[in-house]
Amino acid sequence: MRIAIIDESPARAAVIEEGLREAGMRDVTVFVDRKGIAARLEAMSPDVVLINLANPHRDELEELFALSRAMARPVAMFVDQSDSAAMEGAIDAGVSAYVVDGLKKERIKPVLELAVRRFRAFSRLRAELDEARTALAERDVVDQAKRLLMKRRGIDEPAAYAALRNAAMDSGRRIADVADALVTADRLMGDL
Asked: Is the Cβ–Cβ distance between 38 and 62 less than 8 Å?
């Protein structure tokens, strides 16, 4: 597992690195300078990112939250102090683990594992949500196409669905794709 540590304090970064190495993690890179961090992380392509901030300022948090959103990887953030707005911002940005005043080398591995598990669970939920949205959108376009056929041909709903199904089978396409083409064509043609 490739792990990136972002911490401007070499001493604090060493605590995290030592905790990881004691847990058997060897592929660890420490970044003490955040300048150009996005490009360097992209080049490294870590599996997990651990960010340690002593007393985060709003600008620091915003920068790191933007980085977290863009990376699409598990991110664990350690802070010495926090408030509800910072915590909420971290969660909204996709930070998988937000640990306040908990930087101890023996806690690093469990936090890392938690971040990875939460990231995977969240990713599965997001994929399921995207799948459900796609299914709903397809169902909506099929319903629109059926209504068009019912109106234009004067047929009932089962006959309209059968017409869509037959057109899909004849063209080797999905029913939703045929329905979308019909709805699009109707919009282009308008009321003739």
From this structure: no
